[in-house]
Amino acid sequence: MRVRAESVNPATVSADVLAVPIYKEDAEFPADLAALDAAAGGVIRGAIDWGEFSIADRYTALIPAGDLPFERILIVNGIRRGKGPWRARRIASTATRRLQGHGVATLALWLRDGEDADGFVAAAVGAQQGTFRPFAYYGRTRDTAASLRSVREVVLIGEGAPSASEMERAMELADGVEFGRVLANRASNDLYPEQMAEVARELVADGCTVEVLGVEEMRALGMGALLGVGQGATHEPRLIAIKLPGWERGGDRRLAIVGKGVCFDSGGISIKGAAAMEEMKHDKSGAAAVIAAARTVARLAPETPLMAVAPMVENMPGGNAQRPGDVVKAMNGMTIEVINTDAEGRLILADALHWAEIQGATHLVDVATLTGAASIAFGELYSAYFAKPRDWGRAVEAAAEATGERVWEMPLATEYRAALDSAHADIVNSGTRDGSLIKSAVFLADFVTVPWVHLDIAGSAYLTADKAHNPKGALGTAVSTLVRLALDFAPRA
Ligand code: BES
Ligand code: MN
Ligand code: ZN
């Protein structure tokens, strides 16, 4: 998909369809909307009055364009008035998704609320997201060429448009989000740890150095926590590290992004129930996000001192699987009593975060589908984050906000550390249910010594059903936040 920005009157733009966001506050049309509606011969007002579109219960309405030279006007629920990347991204993805399967080559999207450059970039990313087809990867015989049509070009209309080259960079970001999304959606029989390593090795073409540690190398390094999780699976674990050209020259500022890569989380011996277990192929979403972000930053700003680390395992039961009660020794020397083999994400992150620090990371961000509690507390809209120190968390939050992702801080209440004391080891991997979201972060905090943010995307990584703005499955969550964070991290030469 191509995207460009234009500062024109929406009534005069050349396109097949014009998308017009309508807000809750538009009961009475403001002047700009009234002018467009008048030029169209009142079709927008008419559709609303007739009940074809209502802000309360409709996401979109595709209506005849009246006196305007479009095939159709697409009314899009813009929720509430007010600009910002999140809303621009949501409106854009809803618009292009609504037009899937229609013969629309060019869509004009009116950004009515005076978006700035970040809003335009977010709209470009959203527009591409709306055209995403989760079934394209494996294919379906029942799809026809006509049913597979997508919007091919989007014209974003508004005043604050960035330069054409900025819009090109926006599409590189959109591609990165999609790359992460495709990876996170891949089935566990197809994407196991070594396959993810194969994907990562392709980043050599983008100038990255790619290192893949196997079982023997990890054993030599003492990564007992990661290896314990992986030992029950036939597919062996891997630790993937992708260093950008700028990493070595980073000196006293180096950012490592670490993503949980559980290719399938059955729970292990503490096995999960059958209900929705297939969703646990998405437990590698953090790894997919950091690999996609590294690829994107390597293309946009290769001199960024960035490393992506993806500890990859399959969490499976079996004759050789880790048992509840086992004690493992992490690379940082701490012993961990494994109370619940389903609390595996924190075990692999413990070793990966420490390894990233040993490699020279001065700043850490980990991204993980870590706890069901995050999903229950936040649903799909927000990712939970924990930060030490909180200033570093605010940098992540600002990056998220700028690209239209939503994060919310939770307290890193170290008072709960005592609840993780073990009778046999330094720490247990899982305590009681109360406060378990916070305690998962308190666990991780024992394995880091530099500024660190933990982002729990368990609820936000994928949709469990189709929505107007995105189809069921992976969303590419955190890719745009990580890219923005990395680009802002070190001043570019
Ligand atoms: N991968 C899961 C968390 C998860 C649950 C992600 C639902 C997405 C949707 C994680 O490994 C897990 O099993 N966590 C347990 C931890 C518990 C045993 C302490 C949980 O949240 O129940
Ligand atoms: Mn688990
Ligand atoms: Zn998991």
Question: How would the blueprint of this fold be written?
Answer:
Blueprint: E1 2-6, E2 17-22, H1 31-40, H2 43-49, E3 60-64, E4 72-77, H3 85-98, E5 106-110, H4 117-130, E6 153-157, H5 164-185, H6 193-201, E7 209-213, H7 215-221, H8 224-230, E8 238-243, E9 255-259, E10 261-265, H9 285-300, E11 306-315, E12 327-329, E13 335-337, H10 345-358, E14 363-368, H11 372-378, E15 383-388, H12 390-403, E16 407-409, E17 427-428, H13 436-445, E18 452-456, E19 462-463, E20 473-474, H14 479-489
Parallel strand pairs: 1-6, 2-4, 2-5, 5-6, 9-11, 9-14, 10-11, 13-17, 14-18, 15-16
Antiparallel strand pairs: 3-4, 7-8, 8-11, 12-13, 15-18, 19-20
Helix pairs in contact: 3-4, 4-5, 5-9, 8-10, 9-14, 10-13, 12-14
Bound molecules: ligand BES, manganese (II) ion and zinc ion.
The tally of strands reads: 20
Number of domains: 2
Mean of pLDDT: 97
Question: For the terminal residues, how far apart are their CA atoms?
Answer: 31 Å
Radius of gyration: 23 Å
List the ions, cofactors and other small molecules found in this model: ligand BES, manganese (II) ion, zinc ion
CATH T-level topology of the largest domain: Aminopeptidase
Form type: elongated
Q: Which stretches of 5+ consecutive residues score pLDDT under 50?
A: none
Instruction: Return the structural class.
Output: alpha/beta
Q: How does the major sheet shape up?
A: 9 strands, mixed
Portion of residues in helices?
Answer: 25-40%
User: What portion of the residues fall into strands of 2 or more residues?
Assistant: 15-25%
CATH class category label of the largest domain: Alpha Beta
CATH A-level architecture of the largest domain: 3-Layer(aba) Sandwich
